[in-house]
Amino acid sequence: MPHSDLDLLLLIDDDVIAELRDILQEEFGDLVQDFVDDVPIQLELMQTALDQGNADGLYRLAHKLKSSCGSLGAPRLAELVRQLEQAGRQATLDSAATLLAQAQATADDTVAGLRVILQAAPPGDRAGQD
């Protein structure tokens, strides 16, 4: 997916967030906080896998994170991570460093947006108390 098309994807899908909030109610804040805490760790592990030329490791890490991004309504990050997953699966790591840098920048923006959502969480939700 070209960079310009990537920008057409939502950073955070408000419909998915609203649905998760309705379904999970009080656990919503915990889910989002866990994701916010985990994303940098997963990206760091992907960087290590890439630095070591570990295509299978990159694939496995990206696969896991892609699922989390999709479930939490982060389609732009999910697409970048999907591309990293594909690079790992095909052991074509040439463009993976560029993709990972894009994913890290997008993750920063996504996490910032999710932190705003956490701050706006309704009273009684753990997220609003952090």
Question: Brief overview, please?
Answer:
The protein has helices spanning 3-6, 14-24, 28-51, 55-72, 75-90, 96-119.
Gross morphology is elongated
Provide the CATH top-level class.
Answer: Mainly Alpha
Total E-strand runs: 0
Unreliable residue runs = 124-130
Structure characterization notes:
- The chain is an all-alpha fold and 130 residues long.
- It has a single domain (3-119), classed as HPT domain (Four Helix Bundle (Hemerythrin (Met), subunit A)).
- The chain is 75% helix and 0% strand.
- It is built from six helices and no strands.
- Helix 3 runs antiparallel to helix 4 (55-72).
- The relative contact order is 0.18.
Lay out the secondary structure.
Layout: H1 3-6, H2 14-24, H3 28-51, H4 55-72, H5 75-90, H6 96-119
Write out key terms for the chains shown:
130 residues; mainly alpha; Four Helix Bundle (Hemerythrin (Met), subunit A); 6 helices; disordered C terminus
